[in-house]
Amino acid sequence: MRGKVRFENVKVMQKRGNWYSGYSLFRLFAWMSVAITGCALPASPDGGPRDQQPPIILTASIRLGSTGIEAEKATWTFDEYVVLSSPQQNMLSSPPLPAGTTYELKGKTLVISWPEPLLDSSTYVLQWGNTVRDLHEGNVLKGIQWVFSTGNALDSGELRGQVIDPWSGKGVKDAAVCLYPADVGDSCVMGPARYATRSNDSGYYHFTYLRENMSYALRAFADADGNNKLSTGEITPIAVTATAQAQRYVESAPYDLAPPLPLLSATAIADSLLDWTPWGEDSAGVFSFTYVHGCGPMIGDSLAYPNARPIVIQLKGKLGVYAEWTSMTPCATQKGEVHGLPPGKYTLQAFYDQNGNGVLDAGDYWEVQQPETRIFAKDPIEIKAQWTIESTWEIDRYDPIYWGVH
User: Fold this and answer.
1) Residue 46: its pLDDT value, please?
2) Predicted pLDDT at 253
3) What is the DSSP letter of 362?
4) In DSSP terms, which residues pair with 344 in a beta bridge?
5) What values do phi and psi take at 367, rounded to 5?
6) Which CATH number is 57-149 given?
7) Three-state DSSP class for 288?
8) Is residue 385 helix, strand or coil?
9) Is the pLDDT reported for residue 192 higher than 90?
10) How far apart are CA 153 and CA 147, in angstroms?
């Protein structure tokens, strides 16, 4: 009996041992599979908070604000792995880094190398834009402006102003704003600028670390590829203003240290004067208009600027310009009336006719012609059938773009 029992017990134990061995091997293979997968595809634990912090610069080979730099490259090491987004377009250098400059990542370190020496006694400003972001979440390191000088001190001059659409009065965002030596020719926009930046959402731009009291040629243009120059065959309006001078920052100075840069859209088209037939009295309205040509500065009882250039006022409807008046008399109050207008909404607009040809000119950079300025009355006009609508508009003599007197 004992032998039989021992046999049965041994047999049962063998069955259990086989089952346990199989289960153990299954667990071992499953654990190894998870471990291998985990090594190949790193990921944040499920349910954890999403990383929303951009990379942090731990060390830099060229210290921010340093002077006397003679290096052939610059490096920045981050606290995590990063990726670069089109550094040739997104990272702006003023003055430009030498041709052939390379951007590469080595581990967690960004390396920028230039094949030729930097300009002597010059302050370099590297604006990173959206170039650097972390590897996993794509958090962008924004607002980085790295400044250093090859001379003994950082330059302290500034230049700031606004790029404006002269036909709408609104700021032009993301325009390339470029500074060149003061004596350059018109073709300077085809080559690299000495300094370059971008206008913000309101059209404002701001250059810092310029050579104080130095004059520059100032240009602005739409720049889709972000290289701060126009390529052969690239046709776009170009804004130009008189030579601008960099100045030391003064707390009480006005924001704009340079005249506005008038930059038209490439698709801008002037409104045309309609050849229209007035509607009948029963179905049309009447517009009675009083316009006042401003006086400008006075010397006693006399005008400081007695000679005036024309201001052209227009009544614009859905289809175009229905009526037009021209004023050349400062301090004068004049009247106009339009009958037979189709009911609807209208706009009062005016332009400062610099060349006196009666046409709102778009200008031509290559012909040294500036686009003319257009302004608008604050309140829209609504014409109703069998109604007479009255309106008064006092128009300032000062051209808000060119600061001239009309």
Assistant:
1) 52
2) 54
3) -
4) 383
5) -100, 10
6) 2.60.40.3710
7) strand
8) coil
9) no
10) 11
Instruction: State the pLDDT confidence band at 256, using cuts at 50, 70 and 90.
Output: low
Q: Where does the chain hold its CATH 2.60.40.3710 domain(s)?
A: 57-149
Distance CA(236)–CA(238), nearest Å, equals 6
Tell me where in the chain the CATH 2.60.40.1120 domain(s) lie: 157-262
The pair phi, psi for residue 314, each rounded to 5°, is -130, 145
Supply the pTM of this predicted model.
0.75
**Partners of 147 in the beta sheet?**
125
Residue 212 DSSP class: T
Confidence at residue 251, expressed as pLDDT on a 0 to 100 scale: 57
Q: Which residues, 6+ apart, have CB-to-CB distance to 208 below 8 Å?
A: 125, 158
Residue 386 CA, chain-centre distance (Å), reads 48
* Amino acid sitting at position 380: P
Bond before 96 cis per omega within 30 degrees: no
Residue 199 Cα to chain centre, angstroms: 4
We find that the CATH architecture of domain 157-262 is Sandwich (2.60)
Integer CA distances (angstroms), 141 to 103, 105, 135, in order:
16, 15, 12
Cα(148)–Cα(379) distance, integer angstroms: 51
C-alpha span between 233 and 228 (Å, rounded)? 15
Domain 285-395 annotated CATH 1.20.1050? no
- The Cα–Cα gap between 242 and 257 comes to 12
* Alpha-carbon gap, residue 315 to 1, rounded angstroms: 121
Q: Residue 34 burial by CB count (10 A; 0-12/13-18/19+): exposed, middle or buried?
A: exposed
- Backbone torsions φ then ψ of 368, nearest 5 degrees: 55, 45
3-state secondary structure of 87: helix
**Residue with tokens 């040809």, as numbered in its chain:** 357
Order of all β-strands in the sheet with 73-78: 57-60, 73-78, 109-113, 102-106
The DSSP element (H or E) to which 315 belongs, if any, is strand 311-316
Q: Which residues contact 115 (CB under 8 A, 6 or more apart)?
A: 98, 99, 100, 101
Neighbour tally for 249: CB within 10 Å: 12
At residue 203, does pLDDT exceed 50? Answer: yes
- Per-residue pLDDT of 143-180, as tens digits, reads 888 999 999 999 999 998 999 999 999 999 999 999 99
